[in-house]
Amino acid sequence: MVRRLEPTVFLAMVSPFTVAMVAGAVALVLLAGGPWYLAATASTAVWIARIVVARAMASRIAALPHRIDPFALREPWRFFVSGAVQARARFAETLDLAPDGPLRQRLLEIGEALNAGVEQCWEAAHRGQQLTDARRSIDFGRLERERKTLPVSDARIGSIDAQLASHSRLAAREDTARLELERIDARLEEAVTRAVELGTRAGAVGDLDRVDSAIGNVVRDLEALRLGLDDVGGIA
């Protein structure tokens, strides 16, 4: 992330504002009767300070939490992310109502795992969307119709068959990912519902261990699904 912001730092190095600050430092020193070398030192110090500030701002921006927006995806992938986000919102309401103590502390720990789960769901859904886009980029109907009109000896048949095979592999993998994400999403919502229920009982700290374990398993399964979809571009 920081590497992507490096151009921002570079622009800060040569921006008109930076130039004006450096020139102002030189002018102040010279107007005060200072020697040229002191003016050069002052201008260098101002320029370096400007770069340090720009880098600090870039680092802070890079450290901001990633924004998850279900509506950046299309169905069905949007549905899974939306469900995970809504489950987290319900959990957050329970956490806000929990008084200070062991129960709240345990809910906070579960909340961290839940955040990881929502993030993994978002990433997996993104990969699923890429599968959908890749499949739709292949006009299966047109290719199939074209193949039927070609004679058996036509050299284009091999290329068309390869594209049709790519479409079939993408469609099969897309269906598998959708079904797996649907199952995992249901397990996540079930675990959150249980956490919300137990969050209303002061003596339920020990019972939350099973919820924590369930959400942990969901996170691991989501990560495995996401990793399995990382080579979306190579399936075709």
Structure description:
- The protein is mostly helical.
- It has two domains: 2-62, no CATH class; 70-235, no CATH class.
- It is built from nine helices and no strands.
- The protein has helices at 2-14, 16-31, 36-62, 77-97, 102-136, 140-149, 156-198, 208-228, 232-235.
- Helix 4 (77-97) packs parallel to helix 7 (156-198), helix 5 packs antiparallel against helix 7 (156-198) and helix 5 packs parallel to helix 8.
- The radius of gyration is 28 Å and the shape is flat.
- The protein starts with a helix and ends with a helix.
Low-confidence stretches: 1-6, 61-65
- Biggest β-sheet strands, sense, barrel: none
How many domains in all? 2
Q: Helix/strand-derived class?
A: mainly alpha
The helical percent reads: over 70%
For the record, give the distance between the C-alpha atoms at the N and C termini, rounded to a whole number. Answer: 29 Å
Number of helices: 9
Mean pLDDT, as a whole number? 81
Give the total of beta strands: 0
Rg, Cα atoms, Å: 28 Å
